[in-house]
Amino acid sequence: MPTEHVLNPDDLKPDKYPRLAFDHDAWAWFIAACKDLELTVDDEKRSRLEAIYSHLAGVNSWLNLTRLVSPLDYLKFHIFDSLTVCNLVEAYTAPGDIVLDLGSGGGYPGLPLMTWIPDRQWVLVDSRARKAAFLQEAVKLTPCANPQAYAFRGREVASHHPELHQQCQMVTARAVGPAADLLPDAVELLAINGILMLLKGPAYPTKERDDFLHALPNYGFTLMEEHQLALDENDPDRWVILALRSDDMTTAKSKHHAKTAKHHAKTKHPKPPSAKPRR
């Protein structure tokens, strides 16, 4: 049985690991893909992404953060996949809003989104203390002025970080368990009219989707949008799902069980441009 790595805080520091560079082909693919999404890529962003990648690869040698370590796989399945929702974050949040990445793990979609949209208040959360400790170092590599990373479960936010309790404008979650299971966490994190955004794989439109839609009213959520997109022409469709926390959970449960249909005014958000697949 392998021995668990004894955590030394210095092992989490980015400068402990060699700086890695993206090869020409991988970076060319990424630039072309970002062009399809009308995202600006410059030397400063490349430098930051290479720093984030180098840190991830180094820590990943002893802490399980990802299976994708080649430059192309990293840029495609971690960075670009995260950036496909950049337009939605920009459309549904404003500068200064709290955007929380739940179950962030290795930092996705949070770290790429922070790099492109640094003027939100970004908080990365993972229930595992070691991964949260990694994230506390990783967020320093982004251009955000005051990024945060914490270890707690979303549904426990009131006791761990009460300043975040029902204060977030958006909660993102990528590949973090069944969609319906995230609602007890999201309702404790999001303000009224806050948005839960899920990034899901091709298996989503099955029982998982049915269970999620059934559970939404119990937690005061309504479905806003569902987007299908592919990272390139050879990949299966992925799903982006947005749900609005439109009501208080206690009130919503009573309405759901009583099957009432009382109208509630909601904040209207601008319709964002659709995410474009790489062609």
UniProtKB/TrEMBL annotation:
Statement: the UniProt record of this protein carries the keyword rRNA processing: yes
Main location: cytoplasm
Record's subcellular location: Cytoplasm
Catalytic EC class: transferase
Gene3D superfamilies: Vaccinia Virus protein VP39 (3.40.50.150)
Presence of keyword Transferase: yes
Entry EC number(s): 2.1.1.-
Basic residues bias spans: 253-279
HAMAP family, sorted: 16SrRNA_methyltr_G
Family: Belongs to the methyltransferase superfamily. RNA methyltransferase RsmG family.
Official protein name in the record: Ribosomal RNA small subunit methyltransferase G
